[in-house]
Amino acid sequence: MYGKPSTSRTDRWLAATLQLFTTITVLLLITIVGFLCLESWQLISGSGQNTGIFALLSGQDWYPLEGKFGMGPMILASLAVTFGAICLALPIGLACAICLQFYASRGIARWFELALILLAGIPSVIFGLWGLTRLVPIIGSWQPPGASMLAAILVLALMICPTVALTTTAALRALPLSLTAGSEALGLRLPTQIIQVYLPAARSGIISGVLLATARALGETMAVLMVAGNVVQNPSDLFSPVRVLTANIALEMAYAMGDHRGSLFASGLLLTALVWILSLWANRASGQRLLRAPYV
Amino acid sequence: MSKRWFERCFQLLICGLAVCVVAVMGWVLIDVIIQGLGHFSWQFLVTAPIDAGRAGGIGPIVVSTLLILIIALTVALPLGLAVAVWLAEFAARSSRFARISGVVLDVLAGVPSIVFGLFGNAFFCVYLGLGYSLLAGGLTLACMILPIFTRTCEIGLRAVSQDWRRGTAALGMTKASAVWHVLLPAARPAVLAGMVLGIGRATAETAALLFTSGYVDRMPGSVLDSGRALAVHIFDLSMNVTGGDGAAYASALVLVVLIIILNILAQQLTDRWLQQHSRA
């Protein structure tokens, strides 16, 4: 990191070994993408009626045993569920962060933050279990069958809310003191300060947090799989069951063969691409590396 | 008068939403604790599941979970530490390869867990011929926790004061011994925190294990046997076994308690580390 390169022999050996390990890590990513492409290539590059990238992305029929691999409804369902969860988690997460930063007393804020960190660490399968045995029956008694897009949106929103709240808190905390001094001097009331000054100033941090949360929602499997009902159909209303891309992989991977297996790898490739685009965007928005603090 | 009213309303709205989040979280946790305690006993931890898990305990499942965890850590910790040391201490700041490795780690951290499952199935189970086994599951999890562990260690190493490095250089220490005797001990809490975070992530994981370590709920005889992790057991009981909810909640209780302990541990380690460095 500083000075001229060391001349010690041990050091040169160590540096070479460590660099080798780093190369292995880089190779790991290449292997992952390589295997995803390899397994799905036959299907993606096919030119038949039911193969090829456009047939996969826009096809409406998912009948893998008949060789029809249209993922359109599941892609739509994934996007709809993710969008719904973000619409719910964004205001609630912002409120949590504002409360934490401006309204809660020191002692309460400490506990509240600890609770949010804890909530972020609860395994998704626990949320799924809770959603399946508590939330789904409640929705079901109102609008059967219960296992529905709404249940998936609610559970996902609960899961990503702490991510939004914690990144927003970090962004608000990083604001310079001069902003507070300035807005106090102008005699602005606290709500006005927050809405007109602090939130806009922390914009880039908040956006990157929201994008990270979106990526997490899009890639989430277990919680959605357990509460969404898993019927392949276009999402029409909140109370009908849907199947998202990740749940589809989890459900069918156990017995998929040949092109069917290929189609699941293709959907994995699609998911990865979407998540990467979101992460890159988040990276660009914050201008910093993604894993800045170990908890957020 | 109306201005006061607006301020009050805003505060009420914000704090109300925050209280809602805490309340729902409390609902989830209390539900797991009450429902779980109803089915939990110390026998539950050590006996084998009977009747697809409706009766009996989670003994073999705990053993499988621990084995998967040990495999994942054995692979991920040395590799992650090596990469972190290289990135923080050896790579030149302008090095293109170091920048690329950093991006690769960020990208790896963002890959959805189900995709790791797909990769693990294609690479470890099929290509390397490990089949559905604890080894394949552990290796898949190792790939998953590698980025978060590496990043935490790297941040910890970079935060060690520059004076310490100058000190080791002044003493004529080789870089290798400086890393081993001075820098890594100084960054120890960060390394531990990264480890605990990785363990937490690995214990909570379900999707990546479904098609790598498999569903078999017998006691594993070797690491090449298939074995069911705790999170997979909860999923299976609640989705595929009617009348398995009680056992599912009891397993969920075990998992949640484990995760909470790990989280608090990580939190404390990070706190201690932050204190150390704000003093320095």
Low-confidence stretches of chain A: 289-296
SSE class of chain A = mainly alpha
Rg of chain B, Cα atoms, Å: 23 Å
For the record, the CATH class of chain A is Mainly Alpha
Question: Largest contact between protein chains?
Answer: A-B, 88 and 101 residues
At the first level of CATH, the class of the largest domain in chain B is: Mainly Alpha
Strand order of the largest sheet of chain A: 1-2
Number of helices of chain A: 12
- Discrete helix count of chain B: 11
Uncertain regions spanning at least 5 consecutive residues of chain B: none
Tell me the CATH superfamily of the largest domain in chain B. Answer: MetI-like
Using the coordinates shown, work out and report the CATH topology of the largest domain in chain B: MetI-like fold
Q: Give me the secondary-structure category of chain B.
A: mainly alpha
Strand share of the residues of chain B? under 5%
- Number of DSSP strand runs of chain A: 2
CATH architecture descriptor text of the largest domain in chain B:
Orthogonal Bundle
Mean pLDDT score of chain A, rounded? Answer: 87
Please tag this protein with its features.
heterodimer, A: 296 residues, mainly alpha, MetI-like fold, two-stranded antiparallel sheet, 12 helices, globular, disordered C terminus, B: 280 residues, two-stranded antiparallel ribbon, 11 helices, 2 strands
